[in-house]
User: Which sequence fits this backbone?
């Protein structure tokens, strides 16, 4: 399925931002609005997009080129940008011959919303929300989800839904566009109402609970900025993740840091992984030389840097399987470096080989927990892992807590405490998780061969 994006407008309501760039190129956390839309379309399965451009069009064309992350981009140029949506939309007629996604370039959506629209039945599937949302287009939708009327709210006597900027249509939609343009009507609802009147099957897609932002003015921009940021870090967290420690120490620091990094630097998630590993390596070396105070501070700095990469990758649409693999390798390397350095430093300080044995148990505990978790997720899925209830003191085994304790105890002059802590709780939770995962798999046998998942 193709997509048709209208991005010709000059965005006068968003001046002074649009004095130097098109509205669709205004950045939210370092990512243009249009790029966020293209990302959602690509993730939903769209591999060819037609973009209608006019105002400062070269900025758009130079940024995305003809191929963006594997998606083919076709540009259609117009020489007007204020005469109505349909005059831009008709430009897609000669390059789109199949069912397509129709959306304005100032819209930001979730990939799942686009997928549901693409999978919807009907000659026209239009996104709608409840009537409490401030919009200019309304619709009447019956109990079966069929749209019986659609138009500008100022022209409608009644409506029970408002219409969003997302639609999936058949090429016959272009015929409706031509009819409206012939009558000097350029509003999008006109072509949709034509399809209703011609007997086409027009269906509503309920988007009331979906993430959806349409950037028309500065208020819309600030709202989208706030909500996109919150989604970027909350989407991956479960009740087991948002614990008291994160609320008091981790999130207040990491959330403010990631805002600065996203808007004021060119750092990418892999850079943060490397920085995190660098802190860990330096901490391990300092521990070996008996510099426990500075080493402890660097150990917690490693945890804080690691808390940023995932948030940044989701905020700037940079998440990838390769990045996740790189992150995991750096994390395991950091844990081994810190524990090994701490154990080695204590051995040199005390001459007691038991320190090395405790360090070995700590490393086995770290690697064991990670391996068991990833193996379980591979076999049963991430949703199954999130459904498991953590034991009451699961917090004691968290990575950021362990490294925070390392810093505090090293500052207080007790570097042995965090080593013993990580050895005990790492090994303990490895055993607990083993039996927990085993019980789940026994109670919920996997019918298909997990290796084919």
Assistant:
């Amino acid at each position: 399925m193709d997509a048709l994006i209208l991005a010709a407008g000059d965005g006068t309501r968003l001046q002074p931002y649009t004095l130097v760039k098109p509205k669709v190129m205004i950045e939210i956390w370092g990512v243009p609005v249009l790029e966020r839309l293209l990302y959602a379309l690509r993730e939903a399965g769209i591999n060819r997009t037609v973009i209608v451009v006019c105002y400062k069009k070269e900025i758009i064309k130079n940024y995305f080129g003809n191929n963006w992350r594997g998606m083919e981009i076709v540009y259609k140029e117009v020489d007007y940008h204020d005469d109505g949506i349909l005059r831009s939309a008709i430009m897609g007629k000669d390059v789109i011959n199949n069912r397509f996604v129709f959306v304005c370039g100032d819209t930001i959506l979730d990939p799942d919303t686009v997928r549901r629209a693409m999978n919807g039945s009907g000659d026209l599937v239009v996104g709608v929300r409840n009537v409490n949302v401030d919009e200019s287009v309304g619709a009447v939708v019956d109990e079966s989800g069929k749209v019986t009327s659609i138009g500008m709210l100022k022209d409608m006597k009644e409506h029970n839904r408002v219409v969003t900027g997302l639609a999936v249509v058949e090429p016959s939609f272009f015929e409706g566009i031509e009819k409206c343009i012939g009558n000097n009507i350029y509003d999008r609802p006109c072509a949709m109402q034509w399809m209703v009147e011609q007997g086409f099957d027009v269906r509503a897609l309920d988007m009331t609970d979906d993430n959806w932002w349409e950037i028309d003015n500065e208020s819309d921009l600030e709202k989208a900025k706030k909500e996109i940021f919150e989604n970027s870090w909350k989407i991956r967290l479960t009740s087991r993740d948002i614990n008291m420690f994160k609320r008091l120490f981790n999130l207040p620091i990491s959330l403010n840091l990631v805002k600065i990094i996203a808007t004021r630097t060119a750092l990418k998630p892999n850079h943060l992984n490397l920085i995190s590993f660098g802190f860990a390596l330096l901490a391990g070396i300092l521990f070996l030389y008996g510099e426990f105070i500075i080493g402890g501070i660097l150990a917690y700095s490693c945890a804080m840097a690691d808390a940023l990469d995932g948030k940044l990758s989701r905020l700037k649409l940079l998440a990838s399987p390769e990045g996740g693999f790189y992150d995991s390798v750096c994390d395991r390397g950091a844990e081994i470096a810190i524990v090994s350095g701490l154990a080695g430093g204590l051995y040199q300080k005390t001459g007691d080989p038991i320190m090395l044995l405790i360090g070995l148990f700590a490393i086995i505990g770290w690697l064991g927990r990670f391996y068991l978790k990833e193996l379980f997720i591979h076999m049963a899925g991430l949703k199954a892992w999130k459904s498991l209830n953590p034991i009451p003191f699961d917090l004691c085994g968290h990575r950021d807590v362990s490294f925070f304790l390392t810093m505090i105890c090293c500052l207080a002059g007790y570097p042995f405490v965090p080593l013993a802590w990580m050895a005990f709780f790492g090994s303990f939770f490895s055993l607990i998780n083993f039996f927990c995962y085993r019980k789940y798999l026994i109670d919920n046998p996997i019918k298909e061969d997990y290796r084919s998942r």
Observations:
- The longest strand covers residues 161-169.
- Residues 346 and 416 are 7 Å apart (CA to CA).
- The mean pLDDT is 90.
